[in-house]
Amino acid sequence: LPRITHQNRSSFVIFFQAIQIMTGILLDCLGLLWMYLLFTQIVAFGATYTPIALLTAYPFWSSWLFIFSGAFTVLLEKRRSPFLVSYALVVNIISACISVIGLLLLSIEFIKYSKSSKNPLWPHVSTRKLVNSFRNICSY
To answer: Stretch 50-73: mean pLDDT, rounded?
Structure first.
């Protein structure tokens, strides 16, 4: 097994925090896409549907938390201080809790979709495809 040095550990931390920052950016872009679809669905479908994630503005506030969490952990690797250690730890714990909230919102959206008997709109069609993909993955 390769020996883990401080430089290797630092590279791993920066790599994973870069993934966390990119997740925050992608989540923000997803929120912008949902906003676009929300505003254009009346023209395209003649009906409205508001996703729960947009009602809570989850993509926008959570994405900034993920970005700040990743940035502070990268900053912690560059400069060590007791304040940054405690702040990075707290922000990463909050970030994990926010991820769980996102999973709960997604689960509520799935349940809401499965109980709906209306004609499918864009979120219903995309949710149906996502649920079917998830079932296919879980069946292996």
So the answer is: 85
